[in-house]
Amino acid sequence: MSTSPCIAFSLIIPIYRSESTIETLVSRLESLDYPQPWQVIFVDDGSPDDSYSVLRRRLSHSPLAALVVRHTRNYGEHQAVLTGYRHAQGEYFINLDDDLQNPPEEALRMLEHARLQELDVVYGNYIVKKHNLFRNAGSGFANLTARLLLDLPDSYYLSSFRCVSRLIGEHIAVNSSPYVYIDGLLSQSTNRIGSLDVRHDPREAGSSGYNLRRLIRLWLVILTSFSLMPLRFATLVGLGAAALGGLSLLYILITAIFGTVEVVGWASVISSILFFGGIQCLLLGVMGEYVGRVYLTVYGKPQAHIRSIEWCGCIQPPQDRQQDWVART
């Protein structure tokens, strides 16, 4: 009975609006020189353009050991990465972007760094970031929020260019929540986390898919899915408002006793009502966000649905994996 060769690493590449970069991306991957077998997993995250067809045509004459997984719709980058983790066979899982801003050659350096330092997670720390100003500002704010809420050190940048050991990758891949933040899952699973300075290239084509709406959604996931700090903050605000109200009541009682109460205008009363009413609505919104996410998770909102899985390459998956993939489709 033959056994499948040991696969050194799996490259996980989410695909979305990538038809203009796929040719160059696959060519760069084909030029990688590594002595052990490795594989690449493309996850088509419901791309509305012709990315899937272009990818299939290009892989039809490629020597890469590649797996193409298609989502039924666009679920998001983190969901696509977890889908890739569930189908990866390598000893390490390495995330790459489809726009080639993460050089594939740098992935090999991250792999060796993880092995030599015995790390479970290695983040690519961009020497010079080539994102636009808006993307840099949004990513910086998300990183700051993650460090505050997840108690992460400032020594590494939480980039999407990451190398994860199979042990940790398979552990977080069992997560089925529709609200996914991979760096939060990683920080809860291991403390063997490091970073490596890597090159960050300009985009090959197109523009970043991260708009303000996506960045806000990511920030809300970080804020509400991995920490109770917003609820604790709401408690402190409530206590502060109650204390302020108590002091105001004490002041009124004292002035009433000494007969110095003055009738003031309605403007201050209305302003106070609007101010404290706004705080109440804000705090109700925070609690509602938690309750809503719990409801949607219990209700069964999917993390992702798979339309198809297709193997394209020279290394065939084990028979048990083939049966598992067929069952998932």
Automatic annotation (TrEMBL):
Gene3D superfamilies: Spore Coat Polysaccharide Biosynthesis Protein SpsA, Chain A. The keyword Membrane applies. Keywords: Cell membrane, Glycosyltransferase, Lipopolysaccharide biosynthesis, Membrane, Transferase, Transmembrane, Transmembrane helix. InterPro entries: Glyco_trans_2-like, Glycosyltransferase_2, Nucleotide-diphossugar_trans. It comes from the Bacteria. The chain crosses the membrane at residues 233-258, 264-286. GO terms for biological process: lipopolysaccharide biosynthetic process. The keyword Acyltransferase does not apply. SUPFAM superfamilies: Nucleotide-diphospho-sugar transferases (SSF53448). Residues 10-137 form the Glycosyltransferase 2-like domain. GO terms for molecular function: undecaprenyl-phosphate 4-deoxy-4-formamido-L-arabinose transferase activity. GO terms for cellular component: plasma membrane. PANTHER family: UNDECAPRENYL-PHOSPHATE 4-DEOXY-4-FORMAMIDO-L-ARABINOSE TRANSFERASE, UNDECAPRENYL-PHOSPHATE 4-DEOXY-4-FORMAMIDO-L-ARABINOSE TRANSFERASE-RELATED. This is Glycosyl transferase. It comes from Cyanobium gracile (strain ATCC 27147 / PCC 6307).
